[in-house]
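Per reviewer request, we include the raw input and output of the structure prediction for the construct analysed in the revised manuscript.
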Amino acid sequence: MTSAAEERTPRRPMLWGSFNGLAYVPRLPPTAYALLLHMMTEQEVGGLVVATHDELAQGLAMERGMISRAMPHLVAARLVTVVRRGRFQLHPMLAAYGDPRDQQRAIRSLPRDMRLDEGDFEEEYERRLELHAQEKARKAKMRNKVTPIESRRPKLKPVR
């Protein structure tokens, strides 16, 4: 006899993961930690997470804006890569695979600068987060720098 929950929930494939990358997670805001752990539970084989910010927010019972503010922390820490809208890739040291050898191959194929266990991950996180803040400030400045309509329109020559 099966329970009603088992009948409604589709079976997910069994995944294997050695989450050694969690040892290299910098001091993140609590929301970013919650988001990372939620994404780890929602991942497909190889660490792909297919979910919009709205879906992630709904899964965590948070507002969408909280997800949008937490995601740059995960990206700056190199724990998550944004593939495109609604698709995120977890770092291979955090991703789950069908076989342990698959994870080992994925980690070995990483460039040295993308490995979490190389260099000072905390310092790199701070540096990347600062770059993100600078880029955000630059874009805000560009948005506020509005030119009058008259200067954008070409001057028309009078018709005689």
